[in-house]
Amino acid sequence: MDLNKTIMSLCLAKGVSGDESEAAELALSMLKEYTDDCCIKNGNVIGHFGVKGKKPHVLIDAHIDQIGLVVTHITEDGFLKISNCGGIDRRILAAQQVVVMGNVPVNGVICSVPPHLETDESKVPEMADICIDVGMSKEQAEKVISLGDKIVFAPHCEKLLGDRISGTSLDDRCGVAAVLRAMDIVKDKALQCEVTVLFSTQEEVGERGAKIAAFDIDPDIALAVDVSFALTSDDSELKCGKMGKGCMIGFSPVLDRGLSEQFREIAVGKELPYQTEVMSGTTGTNADRFSVNRGGAKAVTLSIPLKYMHTPAEVISVSDVENTARLIAAYLEEVK
Amino acid sequence: MDKKFLKELCLIDGTSGDEDKVRGYIISKIKDFCEYNVDPLGNIIAEKKGAGRAKNKVMVSAHMDEVGMIVTSVKADGTLTLSAVGGIDPRVAIGRPVAVGDSGICGVIGSKAVHNMTDEEKKTAPKFTTIYADIGAADKEEAEKYVQPGDRVYFKSEFGITEDGFVSGKAIDDRFGCAAMIEMIRSELPYDCTFTFVVQEEVGLRGSRTAAFAVDPDFAIVLESTTAADIPLAEGEKRCCELGKGAVVSYMDRSTIYDKELYRLSKETASENGINWQTKTMVAGGNDSGAIHISKGGVRTIAISAPCRYLHSPVCAARFSDLEDCEKLAKAMLEKMCQL
């Protein structure tokens, strides 16, 4: 598989929490390359690998949804009032191009306050004051846009220097790509246990897709493949990993210490670059749901370092995606 | 107005002092329809022959430059510090893709993850002193192979015109004016006149100053874009002017008190020709008129502007009907001013 191409096409697909179908259908078509036994259930993409019924049952998850906005009201002038769908940084919204996922996709721009009206440029607008201009009257807008329609930042993805890629929804489409790449690496290998791949919905609003899928799948071991913070000059080394330095293996009271250690040993043994990401409580990822699913499962986070999280200008290094995939693949070959 | 020309012009990158690509494009479109020269600052001064000789020398002007940013240094981690070229609210600069330098290297202006911000940081808008561009370089050494201080940085956004005539994209200010003038030069005009495509408006009306000196006109028409605030955040007179209500002619802004007779004439002319006309409900903004009307012994000047939302941001919004009204009014006024 062409990893760059996979990441970039996943990144351009639209899929805000609760309306993931475009991205999910694309991910399903990619997963079909590796298994016929796959489907979309309650929005989640689920694919089966390995030996059915053979323990341990390993779940490999990446979330398919992305942050966005939701239409809450259409004003008399045809502007859209909105609320957030996931963790939005209000500071970056002004003058962003967006696509409203209405009956047909509608391009729009988030209103910004013109300078002659602005007395204080240090202010950040409240969500209640933010609105979207779709260039339509109320009557025109109501024909194609309904309350509840989701809004994405205009999908965008391109290559930067070296192996860096920037795009609108790399969180967590690069995780989806890492899982697909891992399945690509092991496609001709005989796995010794049951493996289920999950591309889950609604992570950004509270890991809800992961909760219902985990109940159905009932795994013994769960790998949550997501993104985490890559260091930038305005952030703290204490909170961040480094871009290009490999997968960030999670260590936390809510994760299984033995599983985290096992991944570290595999990385060392296979000479794969890795970093440790130590958290002191819940991880803010689907792993938090997996570990307490039904009677419990051993969970670990495998995170790809990403800069500028939750902005339309997220940046990753493709080498980190490849190394995360290799780490997952090496684990799958080992687990019995 | 040719929608294709408008789109192509808006998508060209050309901030103040870096208008070469815009100039090249314009020359390619007008060279067969007029005589032109390029002055030392980079202004295009085009002499258009009309059907007859004009009583008065009239200059029609639009600026080629757009707002943007400039690289001021390369940091140890390979990111680039920036300064604004022209008036940009730093709040519209973060969280978006940019193109850096003549070759348009892909980059982004990012922002620390919202998850890691303090409550105070979440409520604090960025400043140009704290934001930076990232081209994916691993370190300063790698970045310096591609970028030098002084390179320009441009917002990247899509340009679109809906069937209904809603126009959105960067640099409508003032590539719309350039597109209208290209159209006029390529058409038959009743009288001789001079068109100037000028540089450096956004950094202090600098190109128009030398162009007006060189042309030495009796009258001038400035084709511009002006702030429309017909959005839910503004009411009453604060809306300034509105999309879809036609060409905007000001009586006064922060750079010029316009010629009273011409102001009244523009309204009459619009009415005679069935052109939508509006004025601004605030004294705000400014344009090349500020330099042109006090050139040499004085030039009687009017500005005809397209109402435009989100001016100086990566995505401006306008109505095609307003752009056409501006072009029609400019043509009608040009004819009258030639013989006043």
Task: Characterise this structure.
The complex is a heterodimer of chains A (336) and B (340). Chain A folds into 2 domains: 3-66 and 168-334, Zn peptidases (Aminopeptidase), CATH 3.40.630; 68-153, Peptidase M42, domain 2 (Elongation Factor Tu (Ef-tu), domain 3). Chain A has 336 residues and is an alpha+beta fold. The longest helix of chain A is centred in the last third of the chain and has 17 residues, at 318-334. Chain A has helices at 3-12, 21-31, 138-144, 170-185, 208-217, 257-269, 287-291, 318-334, and strands at residues 38-41, 44-50, 57-63, 68-74, 80-85, 97-101, 105-110, 131-133, 150-153, 157-159, 164-167, 194-200, 221-229, 247-251, 274-278, 298-306, 314-317. In chain A, α6 crosses α8. Chain B has 2 domains: 3-66 and 170-338, Aminopeptidase (3-Layer(aba) Sandwich), CATH 3.40.630; 68-155, Beta Barrel (Elongation Factor Tu (Ef-tu), domain 3). Chain B has helices spanning 3-11, 20-30, 119-122, 140-144, 172-185, 207-215, 260-272, 289-292, 320-338; strands at 35-38, 44-48, 58-63, 68-74, 80-85, 96-100, 105-109, 132-134, 152-155, 160-161, 166-169, 193-198, 219-227, 247-249, 277-278, 300-308, 316-319. In chain B, α1 packs across α5 (172-185) and α5 (172-185) packs across α9. The longest helix of chain B has 19 residues, at 320-338. The two termini of chain B are 27 Å apart. At the A-B interface, loops of A face β7 of B.
Major interchain interface with per-chain residue totals: A-B, 63 and 69 residues
Strand coverage percent of chain B: 15-25%
Low-confidence regions of chain A: none
Overall geometric form of chain A: globular
Q: Give the count of structural domains of chain A.
A: 2
CATH topology of the largest domain in chain A: Aminopeptidase
Oligomeric composition of the shown chains: heterodimer
Proportion of strand residues of chain A = 25-35%
